[in-house]
Amino acid sequence: MRKSIALILALILGITLLAGCGGGANSNDPNIGKWTAVSASAMGMEIGVADVFENGCSVELKANGKCVLDLNGEKTNAKWTFENGVLTIDEKGDEVYGKIENDVLTLTIPDDEMEITVKFTKEGTREPAGSGNTDNDNAISESAGGAIGDMLGEYTCTGWEVNGSRTDEGAGEWLKFENATRGIVCIAEKEYPFTWSMSGNIITINEDVGLTYTATYENGVIKLDTGMLYFFEKK
C-alpha cells in the first residue's frame, strides 16, 4: 500500500509519501461508516484530491475494529481504534494517527521529508463527490435536507474584502451549487467547476483544476476565501 500511495502523490509533489488505514469498535459506534476525502495538503500547499486520487479516496470504518481503505480504486484491509479522541489506523504494522472532530476525519500521514494531511467527511453509502454518476448526484440533491438542501441554487457576489478593507459591490462573480456534490464558481470572468462537501457551516470546495478553498455559510451569506474574501448571496 505504501508504494501505491507514494507513486500517486509523487506525480503531484515529486516526493515519496506514506499512508495507512484503520478500524472501529462495535456496530453502535457513530464513527462507523464510509468517509470520503474532500481535501489534502502538504508543506502548506493545498492538493486537489481528484488530481491525486483520480478514482477516489475513502476510508470505510467497520465494526469489530476492521476497515477498508480505497486509494485510487485499490482497496486494502486494515484495523482501527478510537481512544481518547485519537484515531489509530494499523495496516500491517504501519500506523497512522488522526482525529474525528465536527464530523470531519483528519489523518496526518508522516514521511521522512514531510507530512500530508487528508480530510474526510462521512458519506454513508453514497458515491464520493464528483464520481461522475449524474443520476446518483441528482438523487442526493432531491433528497437533501437542512442546510445543504437550502443552499442549492445560484448566488451573486455582493462584495469582497482584502486586508480588512471591504468593497460592497461585485464585478460579475457568481457561485452556483448545482446539486449536493457539484457546482461552478465564476471569478474574473472565468468559470471553474468544482466538487463540494459541507460539515456544519464549513464548505470545502475542490476545483477541477486542482485548487481547494473553504467557505462559510451563515444567515444566507456565503463567504468564500481564495486569498481574497468574496461575499455571495442567493439570487
Q: Roughly what fraction of the amino acids lie in strands?
A: over 45%
Order of helices and strands: HEEHEEEEEEEHHEEEEEEEEE
- Class of the largest domain in CATH? Mainly Beta
Total number of helical segments? Answer: 4
Largest sheet: 8 strands, antiparallel, barrel
Large-scale geometry: elongated
Structural class estimated from helices and strands: mainly beta
What is the helix fraction of residues, given as a range? 10-25%
The CATH topology of the largest domain comes to: Lipocalin
| Integer average pLDDT | 75
The CATH architecture name of the largest domain reads Beta Barrel
Terminal residue distance:
47 Å
Cross-sheet strand order for the largest sheet: 1-3-4-5-6-7-8-9
Question: Which stretches of 5+ consecutive residues score pLDDT under 50?
Answer: 6-24, 125-146
Number of DSSP E strands: 18
**Rg calc:** 18 Å
